[in-house]
Amino acid sequence: MDGLAVLDVGCGDGTLGLAMLQYGPRRLAGCDPDARMVARAHAQAGREGCHIDLAVARSQVLPYADETFDVVTCVTVLTFIADPEVALREMARVLRPGGRLVIGDLGKWSCWAARRRIRGWFGATLWRAARFRSANELAATINSVGLTIHAIRGAIFFPPWAPLARLMAPLDLSFGRAMTIGAAFVAIQATRP
């Protein structure tokens, strides 16, 4: 990311953005629809003595000019958007030609998703509104906005039970390269032609 312009869509409290600063982006921007989260990101960046251009904005209406960024990240955001195509179209719009989109979202076919669905059924508002998508569904939507996919990986195949997770975690990287079914997290890398 050295010398690149980077945007973190759904930046939350800025944790990912601050971690990306170690790779030397020329510009780092972040946006989130929750003004409280943007305020936390701003405060956290201030404590670290860093600068991140932050905005309160929804992923479906990004407040940036066309072809502004070399890299756009979007982690655990699409799960909470009814129509991800609109958001992905906006992310593609702000990417420069040759720019890279990195999506990380909660997988549809995992015990983690099942657990969250059950929490939604029992009243957890956040999880009631969540829409879990498979890697194929995410990939189809990314392709539909004109981006070219280069990699799809799964992560966190172990269950939400610490003893079993400790046993299975060493196999996670191998599983993630081979498949996404059962993965709690799906990562996709794509570029704008």
Structural summary, described in words:
The protein has a domain at 58-191: Rossmann fold, CATH 3.40.50. 36% of the residues are buried. The mean pLDDT is 94. The protein has helices spanning 15-20, 35-47, 84-94, 111-121, 125-128, 135-144, 162-168, 172-178, and strands at residues 5-9, 27-32, 53-56, 69-75, 95-106, 148-155, 185-191. The two termini are 19 Å apart. Helices cover 36% and strands 25% of the residues. It is built from 8 helices and 7 strands; from the N terminus they run βαβαββαβαααβααβ. The longest helix has 13 residues, at 35-47. It is α/β, with parallel strands linked by helices and 193 residues long. Strands 3-2-1-4-5-7-6 form a 7-stranded mixed β-sheet, sandwiched between helices.
Summarize the structure.
With about 190 residues, this protein is an alpha/beta fold. It contains 8 helices and 7 strands, in the order βαβαββαβαααβααβ.
